[in-house]
Write a structure and sequence with these properties.
Radius of gyration: 16 Å
Oligomer: single chain
Order of helices and strands: EHEHEEEHEEEE
Bound molecules: inosinic acid
Distance between the termini: 24 Å
Strand order of the largest sheet: 4-3-2-5-6-7
Helix content: 10-25%
Number of strands: 9
Shape: globular
Number of helices: 3
Strand content: 25-35%
Structural class: alpha/beta
Largest sheet: 6 strands, mixed
Length: about 190
């Protein structure tokens, strides 16, 4: 599946364009995995995977990080349909110790930055030794909030369009697409 290639017929009604093909994503994720491995060698970091959107990214990334690390899964919800609600509901951190740990938040996409800002604040307050973030996608948008923390690793910067696939959904659908596509508005 190539970037800019034809959308498979099965999805052409819902997806207008292949923004990132699976081969391009795979190559970039492998390269980022090597960067993380070099940055955290011997530190046994915790990859804090933000479900549901980053489940495919995290699965591929983790397998490309060729040094010891742990995985923990949390949920963060700020969107209903394709609109941000302005509040972030985080679950899965209760009873988890991140004290003294090196934490890498693994996100699918940074849009307004609301989710990332809320998560980093929570994790820093839990006494982590370091907190960094990696995201598959970062949108070029004027809606980015000023309090958005810097994201150390961005796999792809994309235009301000609603995208689906490779974990990202529209109303829980289309997560399973092996590519990132631009949603065709009904
Ligand atoms: P933020 O808090 O506005 O940065 O949004 C982050 C969350 O919104 C992501 O983790 C996604 O779940 C969701 N989101 C934002 N933009 C998109 C998109 O284009 N497609 C699918 N989900 C999105």
């Amino acid at each position: 599946m190539e970037s800019g290639g034809e959308v498979p017929a099965a999805w052409a009604g819902q997806v207008g364009e292949v923004l990132l093909g699976s081969a391009e994503i795979g190559a970039r994720v492998t390269a980022l995995g090597a960067e993380l491995a070099a940055a955290y060698d011997g530190k046994n970091p915790v990859l804090l995977v933000v479900l549901k959107g980053s489940f495919i990214f995290a699965a591929d990334l983790s397998r490309a990080v060729d040094t010891a690390h742990e995985l923990h899964f949390i949920r963060a919800r700020s969107y209903v349909g394709d609109v941000s609600s302005g509040e972030v509901d985080v679950s899965g951190l209760d009873g988890v110790s991140l004290d003294g740990r090196h934490v890498v938040v693994v996100e699918d996409i940074v849009d307004t930055g609301l989710t990332m800002a809320a998560l980093m604040r929570r994790i820093e307050a839990m006494g982590a030794a370091s907190v960094e973030a990696i995201t598959l996608l970062q949108k070029e948008t004027v809606r980015r909030r000023p309090e958005t923390p810097p994201v150390r690793w961005v796999a792809f910067t994309i235009p301000d369009k609603f995208v689906v696939g490779y974990g990202l959904d529209f109303d829980q659908r289309l997560r399973h697409l092996p590519f990132v596509g631009v949603m065709r508005k009904p």
